[in-house]
Amino acid sequence: MIYAVIMAGGKGERFWPLSSESRPKQLLPLTSDKSMLGVTIDRVGQYIPPERIVIVAGTGISKAILETCHMLGPQSLLPEPVGRNTCLAIGYAAVHLMKRDPEAIMIVLSADHLIEPAEKMVEVFKAGVKLASEDNHLITIGIVPTRTETGYGYIELGDEQWQVDGVTVCRVAAFKEKPRPVVAQQYYHDRRHLWNSGMFIWSAKTILNAMLYCQPEMHAQLMEYSESIGTANEEKARDKLYNEAEAISIDYAVLEEADNVLTLKGDFLWDDVGSWLSLQRFKPTDRDNNVVVGRTVTLDTFESTLYNAGDGIIAAVGISDVVIAKVGEVVLVAHKTQLGQLKDLLAKMAADEDLKKYL
After folding, report:
1. Number of compact structural domains in the chain
2. CB-based contacts of 179: which residues, under 8 Å, 6+ apart?
3. Do 35 and 181 share a domain, yes or no?
4. Domain with 342 in it
5. CATH number for the domain that contains residue 229
6. Could you report the per-residue pLDDT of 103-157, keeping only the tens digit for each?
7. pTM of the predicted model, to two decimals?
8. What are the percentages of helix, strand and coil residues in the chain, rounded to 5?
9. Which residues are within 8 A (CB) of 202 and not within 5 positions of it... i.e. 6 or more apart?
10. Residues 256 and 171 placed together within one structural domain of the fold
């Protein structure tokens, strides 16, 4: 059977103060009037029924997920006591699915992506499932770049290419880190590089076998934990797993080491809604190219994002390339070029007992 595994962890710090520990980005209505997680469930629900959708998320937001995603039940949640990056999250989901269905095929998604149209995405999924069912492939979905982008990782395509049900399949030559602007421009023009979307397709058995080869220690920890699934000791064993396992991404841990990795070319609109800057790519702008949400008034203000999530008003005069976000008692003011320092700012606040309550 085919299952969707939606990774909904993370605090969404790059969207602070709109995103918080108790209401992170994936629970916010950033791209529509539904939460991003809700939109993701609806999208993949065109292919996979709710009873085969699994959400991997922090224990602290499990209640909020069930309150906002009414189509899910408690059995759909795989709670994480602490974040440990994508390799452990995927392995954790894989051992649960293996218990449920030894032949399970996993479509791994993130809860914070914008994808349109969903029908094209489903076509790519079907081709990937066909490949994953026929052989022990680790399949990534790469996105045809639509601009020079330094904020994403890239997949370098190998020379071998073929078609599966109209979808282009390529061998992966290499995974590339987020590039410098001049390199990103080269990747955009050479058509040999795709954005690494962070979406994957494989059987639970195949990814666990890959972990055995590439990450034997984590594989052993997962196998030990799997013995407790369905027993009174499961929660204690899960805590042990998450306390002891390494925090590492699936890309570094497995995909860069494995020799059976393919990529499917996703020729559809895709965006990693990762920070305040991403809003300018899908929100409407005014005549001065400002993104404006909520009550605001501007004068001689250009290329800025103004987001008022509550009462009162944001008034801006004579500024450009700035983000102003007003949420409750907190107002964030940041130049767009300095948003990369937001995590450092939050760390400074976390170290101050008087400021922690605003995180």
Report:
1. 2
2. 150, 154, 187
3. yes
4. 277-358
5. 3.90.550.10
6. 999 999 999 999 999 999 999 999 999 999 988 999 999 999 999 999 899 999 9
7. 0.93
8. 40, 30, 35
9. 105, 106, 108, 132, 137, 138, 139
10. yes
